[in-house]
């Protein structure tokens, strides 16, 4: 998506460890009209899918998911990172390895908010090795809901998460796919939608 690629080139900062910081407009300070445009684009790409719920993971996915959800007119539900588990059978539960914090989180979601009747679109800010998405997909599977696909703002195409999910048959729509990055440049995979 051209608008997003231009913004990453202008305001993105490449950090050591293959981290792209976009915190001035996406996941710390948030440029709402800009993210709203991303929401419109996700709606365009998933216009054929009968989505009933948008699923994300705290914390940085939540704000983005809310703006996206306005275009689908469905609720957002987010998986919570739990410090200690006090399970009472009313929660879906899985583990996620965090790319940025290098630790494993327990992740939970109330069974009240996802069921076999749902058609789910997962939304997240980044896709790197795919651990966050795999965790969310396990929750969807446990709930019996239909996974319609995943909408990702920035996929790091040089890490294998996106490709391996596509090989599993998951519909992954990334608005920008970074093929490589250096301290002062970011290059993107050609986008079939532009
Ligand atoms: P994965 O689970 O796919 O390895 O990593 C995805 C998660 O890690 C995202 O939810 C995002 O929060 C974080 N992440 C991965 N790579 C980056 C990055 O380059 N920049 C930022 N800001 N977050 C990242």
UniProtKB/TrEMBL annotation:
What name does the UniProt record give this protein? Answer: Xanthine phosphoribosyltransferase
The pathway this protein participates in, as annotated, is: Purine metabolism; XMP biosynthesis via salvage pathway; XMP from xanthine: step 1/1
Q: Which residues bind xanthine?
A: 20, 27, 156
What keywords are assigned to this protein?
A: Cytoplasm, Glycosyltransferase, Purine salvage, Transferase
Quaternary structure, from the entry? Homodimer.
Q: Which HAMAP family does the UniProt entry name for this protein? A: XPRTase (MF_01184)
User: Could you tell me which InterPro entries the record lists for this protein?
Assistant: PRTase-like (IPR029057), PRTase_dom (IPR000836), Pur/Pyrimidine_PRTase (IPR050118), Xanthine_PRibTrfase (IPR010079)
Compartments, as annotated in UniProt: Cytoplasm
- The residues listed in the UniProt record as binding 5-phospho-alpha-D-ribose 1-diphosphate, with positions renumbered to this chain, are 128-132
One short Pfam name that applies is: Pribosyltran
Q: Supply the source organism for this entry.
A: Blautia stercoris
């Amino acid at each position: 998506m051209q608008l997003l690629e231009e913004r990453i080139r202008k305001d993105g900062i490449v950090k050591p460890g293959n981290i792209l910081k976009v915190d001035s407009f996406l996941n710390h300070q948030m440029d709402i009209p800009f993210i709203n445009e991303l929401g419109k684009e996700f709606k365009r790409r998933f216009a054929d899918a009968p989505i009933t719920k948008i699923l994300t993971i705290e914390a940085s996915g939540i704000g983005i998911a809310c703006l996206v959800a306005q275009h689908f007119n469905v609720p957002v539900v987010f998986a919570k990172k739990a410090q200690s588990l006090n399970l009472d059978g009313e929660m879906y539960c899985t583990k996620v390895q965090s790319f940025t914090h290098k630790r494993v989180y327990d992740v939970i979601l109330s069974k009240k908010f996802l069921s076999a009747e749902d058609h789910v679109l997962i939304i997240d800010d980044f896709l790197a090795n795919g651990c966050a998405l795999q965790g969310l997909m396990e929750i969807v599977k446990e709930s019996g809901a239909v996974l319609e696909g995943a909408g990702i703002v920035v996929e790091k195409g040089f890490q294998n998460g996106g490709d391996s999910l596509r090989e599993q048959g998951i519909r992954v729509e990334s608005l920008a796919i970074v093929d490589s990055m250096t301290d002062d440049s970011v290059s993107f995979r050609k986008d079939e939608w532009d």
